[in-house]
Design goal:
The chain has 487 residues and is α/β, with parallel strands linked by helices. Helix content is 37%, strand content 21%. The chain has a 7-stranded mixed sheet, with helices on both faces. Strands 9-8-7-10-11 form a 5-stranded parallel sheet, with helices on both faces. The protein binds nicotinamide-adenine-dinucleotide (NAD) and succinic acid. The site of succinic acid has 8 residues, from loops. The site of nicotinamide-adenine-dinucleotide has 28 residues, from helix 7 and helix 8.
Amino acid sequence: MAQGHYINGAWQQGDVSKSLKSFNSVSHECVYDGFEARPDQINEAVSAARQAFKTWRLVSFEERVACCRLFIQTLKDHSYDLVSAIGRETAKPRWECELEIQTVIAKLDISILAHLERTGYRMTQTGSVKAVLQHRPHGVIALFGPYNFPAHLPNGHIMPALLAGNCIVFKPSELTPLAGEVMIQCWEKSLPKGVINLVQGSVSVGTYLAQHPQLDGLFFTGSARVGHLLHEQFAAFPEKIMALEMGGNNPLVLGAFEDNEATIYTCIQSAFLSAGQRCTCARRVFVPVGTKGDHFIEQLLGRVEKLVIGEWNAEPQPFMGALVSVAAASRVLQAQQEWKDKGAKVLKTAQILKEGTALISPGILDTTGCDIPDEEVFGPLMQIIRYENFETAINLANATHYGLSAALLSTNSKEFEYFEREIRAGVVNWNRPTTGASSHMPFGGVGKSGNLRPTAYYAADSCSYPVAGVQAETPEIPAILPPGWNS
Ligand code: NAD
Ligand code: SIN
């Protein structure tokens, strides 16, 4: 069923004693049936990438772009396979999977632009002397993907890394190996052997790869817990590049908001898009005390009640799919119970809609004044926190160790000026959802959300290092010699 691991231009089976399977969290169909990579295969993948780097780094930028264009063309031809792999493995609705593919396709032109603008060539000449700035690729990069965007997020690193001249060993999430495999099948025809390699597996494969001594860098998108662990492991290697994109405990603040459907829509898109499985989802919604706030909450609860939740391929399509796994749904229910135990008032209970599946309805709890842990709950669970004045709301919104995304719903531009200045986050939106990040902009956060190496438009920055030089055709004696030269 599975092709396995793609190493040095060929597909290999893995460790037959360690099966790797992925399942749909509603139908429970087995989507991927294969084996984890063996340590010797991981070694081989890293060696293949190192060998390929010797020539790939010398390939012209135009040729690398051509390889990436070929990938995009192949991906378009196989978009049905990738949509189906993502939908079956993540349980996201088909419309979301299709949007994900569009984002992958759009990434190439953005990455080309970013590469040239952020890491291009610059030369200034003064007399016979040139000051030259150019950029060099790092070498072999290990790349770790999360499950929520199994194509778009790895691609957000892969495309810029390849354009810069790096070679890659990619480990997809163990929950989405098929999506990873289909992606690599699309690269297979576009690149020389060894430039991109795929090793599949769970934490043990990830751990082995991350600690491989032959790596020049590691690009990771995933949870803060794992990101911090990897950072500790890399602590002894400051010479290696590391880009970490982690989660958030993101605030959405309602200031002088309009009491209408657009406000409700923006709030739902912030908290419950992708069933709350976006790193940018709003987890904490700050609502002013008083009748306007009460009315908003009432309208919100009514609208959320009507959201259609269903299987990834249901017709007509649902707004929300299931969570990636039954375990992920259980974690949401567990967090809901913990918040209740801490005194939260349940406004809408998150509950499993079909026994034994990860189809779960959104939960909304009023946690005002409760001591809720500063942790990301990666699912459709919203805290509502009532506040007395705007400054207090911003202080509470900033009371997190994370800092990925934040948004303000307000028609008062003075409020937004204050919000934009004071809120601590890498994505700061106004009257748009917290989930509305643009690929044309850098993407990343502060605090526990990352290590200040944003992706999207700034991904190029992590993919190469600058080399600055002062150059002349011949050495020369300057007109003014240093003191003591002729003594
Ligand atoms: P995860 O941290 O569990 O796993 C991410 C990847 O790391 C997987 O490939 C996994 O196998 C691997 N991994 C796990 N433990 C490892 C270890 N000890 N050593 C090496 N590799 C290891 O994340 P997930 O559950 O797949 O994804 C959801 C998380 O990702 C959420 O926290 C979400 O906020 C975050 N996320 C962040 C962004 C962003 O750009 N900031 C985007 C999407 C998702
Ligand atoms: C996410 O929210 O998980 C990823 C955001 C993006 O890159 O679009």
